[in-house]
Fold this sequence. Notes:
This protein is an alpha/beta fold. Helices cover about 40% and strands about 20% of the residues. The protein has helices spanning about 1-10, 30-40, 55-70, 75-95, 95-125, 130-155, 165, 180-195, 225-235, 265-275, 285-290, 345-355, 380-385, 415-425, 450-460, and strands at about 15-20, 45-50, 160, 170, 200-205, 205-210, 215, 240-245, 265, 295-300, 310, 325-335, 360-365, 370-375, 390-405, 430-435, 440-445. β10 and β11 form a beta hairpin. α4 (about 75-95) packs antiparallel against α5 (about 95-125), α8 packs across α9 (about 225-235) and α14 crosses α15. It is globular, with a radius of gyration of 23 Å.
Amino acid sequence: MSGQQRHSRFERGEDVVVMKxxxxxxxxxxxxxxxxGIVESRLGAHPVVVVSALAKVTDQLLEAGNxxxxxxxxxxxxxxxxxxxxxxxxxxxxxxxSAYGSLDRELRxxxxxxxxxxxxxxxSRHFDLKTQDRLLSFxxxxxSRLASWVLSxxxxxxxxxDARRCIVTDSRHGxxxxxxxxxxxxxxDTVNPLLQVGGIPVLGGFIASSQDGVPTTLGRGGxxxxxxxxxxxxxxxxxxxxxDVDGVMTTDPKICSDARVIRKLSFDxxxxxxxxxxxxxxxxxxxxxMRENIxxxxxxxxxxxxxxxxxxxxxxxxNRVSAITAKRNIVSVEIQARHGVDAALLNTIFxxxxxxxxxxxxxxxxxxRISLLVGSNVxxxxxxxxxxTVADVQWENHKxxxxxxxxxxxxxxxxxxxVFATVSDMDVRVLCQGASERTLSFLVDESKAEESVRxxxxxxxxxxxxxxxxxxxxxxFCQAG
Length: 481
Ligand code: ADP
Ligand code: ASP
Ligand code: MG
């Protein structure tokens, strides 16, 4: 597949760059004007543009759906009318009369469909994940139509592409998985001819459809994944994730204001960071990029000239802690086996978890006990019921996994001892050596997550005088790129 994909680049040897703009990078007139400038700066590299819904819109759509399903139709309609007005105002500030009229016609018909969905939710009072996907997909439909018209108005050859016709997934609503061969073919058939004639395809991220044409979504934050899917399908030379921070950082800058940009990361490290809670990338983003060896650059749309972070297959520069992450909303599950842990029990447990689509984050076993960390407690009562003949199950909510990521840190006992020393007074419940050599994680109460991250960041990335150049400093413990 890999070789085949490389040959599929719309003209062999030519660059294609997939540029994904997150919600804050399309949130208002100024952001969209910056987007135009950034896309213009890449014209020589044949851009394909992927946009998220405008900041907050996905949450507002979700709120509207919940309100309608509770019978508060008025509130729901008011929410979506605000979304409509916001798009109209942006269109008004960015487009001339004729383009405004055309976009307005497109938006009106989409908003009618959205309103009628809310009416049917009000009538049925039933808001399942399938309907949720249909509802949330409007956000990216609106933003991608808006972005496409705005880029055209700026004189670029933008062409709107409905991602739901190209990205085909299974029917796991809320967190669908691409059907790769169909998706690859459809993206090539749609995107490559546009690139060949100098067009700039503009797609909504996050949204897709199942093989029978029903709208699906790729999970919250899924536009990053969409960009990687498109990049892998068309053999892009790079994928750019344009966001609201300077790149992938040593930790979430909202937790530690002194977090610093990591200039270079391996695919593996970045994938581990995303998996363990670094929101800057959707956890599934790196796999397609890694498979096709396409570098991913994370860049700040508010400071487009910055270096950002380059994520690639490069060999790591050695042993270090690259970053610290926190994954919240974790449920810790203890399964006490009645007759010891064996393969048959594991089989039963995984069968029951699978039946209830319960994804396991981390797992540990002993002679008669299995510990699991899962991301949601919704299905746990049913899981307990399914296992009642073979095990006793107990769980605790409101936990967080704190994770240190870095090449080979598992082989460095001094990292673990330093972690212990830093958080020893904080009721660290489990220390989980992940399956990967690159992660070291532990469980704390969610209320202690931020303090743990701050302490560890202070220990592994001590503050430096502003004048010092961190680029040249490296140690066994810390290095930010
Ligand atoms: P977008 O809407 O552009 O997709 P997101 O909000 O999904 O943006 O992701 C960017 C946010 O991720 C940042 O504002 C930051 O708070 C958060 N974040 C969490 N961990 C990290 C990290 N290690 N490096 C950078 N940002 C991070
Ligand atoms: N708009 C979607 C969300 O808020 C997808 C994304 O932003 O990547 O989750
Ligand atoms: Mg995001």
